[in-house]
Amino acid sequence: MYSTIKLIINRICQLVVLPLAITCWLETKLSPHSEAVFAFWTHIVSILPGLPGVFLRRAFYSLTLEKCSLNSHIGFGTIFAHRGTVIEDNVYTGIYCSIGSAYLKKNCLIGSHSSLLSGNTQHQRNEENGEWMPFSKDNINRIEIAENVWVGEGAIILANIGRGSLVAAGAVVNTNVKANIVVAGNPARFVKSFEPSSNNTTTKVKVSEEILKSQPEV
């Protein structure tokens, strides 16, 4: 019963945001390299409050992103920079996240105020004159957040995160992270691997005290 009601509400919300989505579709046809219209609407839908906002954001992105599951949660204030993003089932993003070009796989959790950038090669410097080169979409890379990843609050992600890993709050990840490990710090570094518990139904993590002591107090 609940799933049926949820499906009906999702479809109604898709109808509500359909005019917005149509303008984005027209943009892709008339100006394939532009995302100005999409950016305008992503800012508007990001500030829709409460539970209605959650449904309307999800509906909008299900019609405009490369893929967005209707079983996902997109928090208040979260914006997307590129239409090429993929959001699979049971993905959760907290409030005020900034997401570039990313592939968010099933069951991953993105903490509030986190930034998922489009790789680490977006801004390049001319070594001859020392000037920063103009932004080019050719430098955009889609990062991948694998299944069951937990990204802590305020983390900055510029690389891929392996399945089942945990990124500590405030970490800055600029190189790929392997599966089933914990990383923390700036730049993010290995803290500990996940270890299966004795009953094999849960996972425990042993964190180095030295690593924890090295983190600034907030």
TrEMBL record:
- Write down the InterPro entries for this protein, in alphabetical order: Hexapeptide_acetyltransf, Trimer_LpxA-like_sf
Could you list the residue ranges that cross the membrane?
7-26, 38-56
Tell me if Nucleotide-binding is a UniProt keyword of this record: no
**Key words of the record:** Membrane, Transferase, Transmembrane, Transmembrane helix
Q: What CDD domains has UniProt attached to this entry?
A: LbH_MAT_like
Q: What would you give as a GO molecular function for this chain, any one?
A: transferase activity
Question: Which domain of life, per UniProt?
Answer: Bacteria
Ribonucleoprotein keyword on record:
no
Q: Which SUPFAM superfamilies does this UniProt record tie to the protein?
A: Trimeric LpxA-like enzymes
Q: What is this protein called?
A: Acetyltransferase
- Please report the organism this UniProt entry assigns to the protein: Paraglaciecola mesophila KMM 241
